[in-house]
Amino acid sequence: MNLITSDWVSGPKRPQSKLPKRLVYSDFKEEYGDMVFMLNRIMGCPQGAMFKTWMFCFVEEVSLGLKMINWAKLISDNLDIELRELERTRTFYLSSYVLYALARHLRYKGLIYKGEVRRKFGEQVSCFFAIMTALQFHLLFYCTRPLPNIFSLAIVIMAYAFWINGQQFATLNCLVFATIVFRCDTVLLLGPIGLQLLLTRQITLWGAIRCCAVTSLLSIGFTVFVDSIMWKRFLWPEMEVLWFNSVLNRSSEWGVFPVHWYFTSALPRSLLVAFPLCFVGIIFERRMQQYVLPILAFIVLYSKLPHKELRFIISAIPMLNLSAAVAATRIWNNRRKSFWKWAYIAMIGSLLASLGFSITMSVASYANYPAGYALNALHNKDLHPNTSYTRVVHIDTYAAMNGISRFCEKEFPWRYSKEEDLSFEEIIGRNFTYLITEHQRIPSFQCLLAISGFSRPTIQLSFPPVVLITQPKVFVHGNIHSKVVKEMQWLGCPSQRRL
C-alpha cells in the first residue's frame, strides 16, 4: 500500500514511501488503503511544520464510509476506465466524503451535547443554543476542516456533555484523551476545568490523579504505537507539537497578535450575537458561572501565546453559546415587561444582523482561496501537447495558505515545490517554470495571470446593501527563458504600483 506523496523539487525525485511490510496484510489493505491514501494528502507529509497523528483513521463514520468507497473502487477497477482519470475521480469523492463525514461526526456529538442542555436547562435554552450555533459561520466552516483542533473539538463536546450530566471523571477522561492524542493545548482547558471540579469538591485529588493517570498511559501507548508505525519512526506527535509551540515558541513564525486579540477580534467575529449574551448569561444564571469561568480562563491562558488563530480556542465556543442561550431565554420570557422589551428588540435585531453577517461571510469565502483558482487556471491554460518539458511550479507560503492543497496537483509533467523563505536570487537559480506567489513583479519572470481575492466589504444605498470588494491577490509568473511559456498567449497582469 503506497502513501501518495508529491514531487518536491528540493533535490532528486524521491520514490513513494511505503509502509513496513509487516503491516501490508490483505484486511488492512482492503479496508484502510483508500483512507491512508486520502488522509495522507489531507494531513500532509513530514515536510510540513509538524507531524500529525493518524488516530483519526479510527473515527467510525469516516472509516465506514471509506470502506464503502473502497469496495466501489474495487468494482470500478473491472471497468474500462483510464487509470489516471479513475484515480483523480476517486480522490475527489474520497476527499468530499471525508469532509462530509467529519461534519456528520461533529453534528452527532453536538446533538448529544444539546440533549444534555435540554435535560438540565430546558427546551427553550436548547432551542436558542441551536439558533446561536446555526448563525455562526466560522464554527460551521471549521466543522468540515480535517484539522487536529476539530477532531479534538468532537471529544471536547462530549466532555462538556458529561460535565453537564455530572459525570466528572468521564469529563476528565475525554479531555485527557483529546490532549494526548489530538491537540496538546487542550491541557489549558483541562487545567481550569479540573481545578473547578476540585475546588467545588466534585472530585478528590487522589481520584483525579488515578483517573487521569490510567487514561494518559493508555492514550500515550495507543498514539505512539499507531503513529510510530505510520510515520516509520518512534513518535508521539502531540509531544513534538508541544515542544515546537510552547518550549521553542516557534509558532510565532506564522504571525503574532496582541494579547487581547481573542476577546477583541476572534470571539466577536465567531460568536456574533452570542458574544455579549454569553457574559449576560453568567449574571442571569448562577449555574453558568461554574461552566463559563473555566472556559474564560482557558482563553486567557491561551492569549499568552504570541501566535493566535481562532481554531486554537474553537473548543470554547459550544460552552459560550450555552451561556448566550441562557441569556436569550431570559430575555424571551420577559419580553412583555417594559425594561426587557428593549432588550428583546435589540436581541432580535442582533440575530438578524448575525444572519446577514454569516451569509456575507459565506459568499466571501468563495473568494478567499485565490491561489487554488490560480493553480487550476494554470493547469487549464498550459495544455501544450509537448510533454517532454517538465513544468516545475513553485508555490510560495502565501499561496500555500490560500487555497492550494495536494488535491489540486496533477501528474507528470507537473512537479511542485513549496520551499519556504526563498529569495528572488534563489528562485531565479532554481529554474522554475512557473511561480504562484503574492508578488506581482519578480526578476527574470513574466507575470502571466492575476487572480483576485476577497479584500473587504463595502456598504451602499442601492441593492444589495453590502458589496464585496476583490483585488488581485495571487499572481502566476512564467520563466522568460522557458520554451513552454514563450509558445503560449497569456492574459497578463493589471498594472499596479509597486509597494
Task: Give a short overview.
57% of the residues lie in helices and 8% in strands.
Task: Summarize the SSE layout with pairings.
Blueprint: H1 26-43, H2 60-76, H3 83-121, H4 123-134, H5 137-142, H6 148-165, H7 168-182, H8 187-199, H9 205-231, H10 237-247, H11 261-271, H12 274-284, H13 289-302, H14 317-333, H15 338-365, H16 370-381, E1 391-395, H17 397-400, E2 414-417, H18 424-429, E3 434-437, E4 445-459, E5 466-479, H19 483-486
Parallel strand pairs: 1-2, 1-3
Antiparallel strand pairs: 3-5, 4-5
Helix pairs in contact: 1-2, 2-3, 3-4, 3-6, 4-14, 6-7, 7-8, 7-9, 8-13, 12-14
Your description of this structure?
With 499 residues, this protein is α/β, with parallel strands linked by helices. 57% of the residues lie in helices and 8% in strands. It is built from 19 helices and five strands. The protein has helices at residues 26-43, 60-76, 83-121, 123-134, 137-142, 148-165, 168-182, 187-199, 205-231, 237-247, 261-271, 274-284, 289-302, 317-333, 338-365, 370-381, 397-400, 424-429, 483-486; strands spanning 391-395, 414-417, 434-437, 445-459, 466-479. Strands 2-1-3-5-4 form a five-stranded mixed sheet. Helix 3 packs antiparallel against helix 4, helix 7 (168-182) packs parallel to helix 9 (205-231) and helix 8 (187-199) runs antiparallel to helix 13. The longest helix has 39 residues, at 83-121. The chain is globular and about 75 Å long. Residues 1-48 and 74-84 have low confidence and may be disordered.
